[in-house]
Amino acid sequence: MPLYRACLAGQKTARSFQVNRPPIVFGIIIPTFNRPALLGLAVAAVKAQTYPHWRLFICDDASVADYSPVMPMMEDDRIEFIRRPLNGGCNAARNTGIDAAIRSRVDFIISSGDDEEIDPRALEEAVTVINEHPDCGWFISNTAGDEKAVSKKIVTAGYRDWLDDYVYGKKLRGDKTHVISTVALGDIRYDGRYRNANMWPFFIPLSARTRLWAYPYPSKVIRYLEDGITKNSSRYPKTWLEVYSRFAKHACAIRYRPTKFAAYRYLILELLKTPKRILYLFRRPKRPAAS
Questions:
Q1: Please, what sign has the CA dihedral across residues 221, 225, 230, 235?
Q2: Which of 151, 164, 256, 289 has the most neighbouring CB atoms within 10 Å?
Q3: What is the average per-residue pLDDT within 200-219?
Q4: pLDDT digits (tens, 9 = 90+) for 77-93
Q5: How far apart are CA 269 and CA 238, in angstroms?
């Protein structure tokens, strides 16, 4: 049986969350690095939720900034502040938060950021949607605030397909708020080799494991900051790993859905571009050594 069929066959596990069970508990994961003031705003937004059943996992990625001014906000049994001993990037910090959330037996995880503020009714809205669609283990909604030029809002609620509508389609574009069942998530994690961005090793396997429901509520406010990850994009890869990621994404899509013919086309196109990208790596100016 192909891998993607085996994964889809396991969708029955998504029905493990039913309305007649205890209240749904959310695990909110916020990585942070040297931005205590922004983190204070993010934490305040979580504590303002109209739905009370949540746990907050803040993952400090070996910051050198002083977080003591915001530590009084952490005096809540629902908040866990985790200090990572080594800086590993945003994806590694997210994985630390996911592991902590699963150990705490939360039902769903929401990944946010220290420069994002969750809407006060976001969890309340999510509970309603989750209870209405027990066949889904993954829910996405809109964001407010800053947007990319190519962003496309969710206008009507309904089932979506991550490969068809996001990776290779145009129905979904830009940043979204993701609410993911820990049952559906299982052992899927972000690829820690990428310090930030490159979410495909996380979302493509997830799309093979559970159904996706989209709804138009603006669940969080995001800001694109100069020191954030969104503006640090480039037409040309800057590392060997980035060169690899450009074609590996489509190979991953083929692995989980061999009948996705668009993935084969894009894989070939990206492979054809690879020699030029490798040449760029050799020719680009080298950064001066840090003093």
A1: positive
A2: 256
A3: 97
A4: 999 999 999 999 999 99
A5: 19
- DSSP letters spanning 146-185: ---TT-B---S-EEE-IIIIIISSSSSBS--EEEEEHHHH
pLDDT digits (tens, 9 = 90+) for 212-228: 999 999 999 998 876 65
| Pair 29, 102 in one domain | yes
Which of 52 and 16 is assigned the larger pLDDT?
Answer: 52
- The closest alpha carbon to 145, from 123, 175, 111, belongs to 175
pLDDT digit string (tens) for 226-254?
Answer: 665 434 445 567 789 999 999 999 999 99
Half-sphere exposure (Cβ direction) of 228: Cα atoms closer than 13 Å: 14
**And the tokens for 2?**
């192909």
Count: domains in the chain:
2
pLDDT at 3 over 60: no
DSSP annotation of 90: H
Answer yes or no: do 148 and 265 share one domain: no
Q: Note whether 211 and 204 are within 8 A (CB).
A: no
Distance CA 196, CA 48 (A): 28
CB atoms inside a 10 Å sphere around CB 244: 15
Tell me the DSSP string of 101-160. HHHTT-SEEEE--TTEEE-TTHHHHHHHHHHH-TTEEEEEEEEEE---TT-B---S-EEE
Taking residue 101's Cβ as centre, other Cβ atoms within 10 Å add up to 26
Q: Which CATH number fits the domain that encloses residue 132?
A: 3.90.550.10
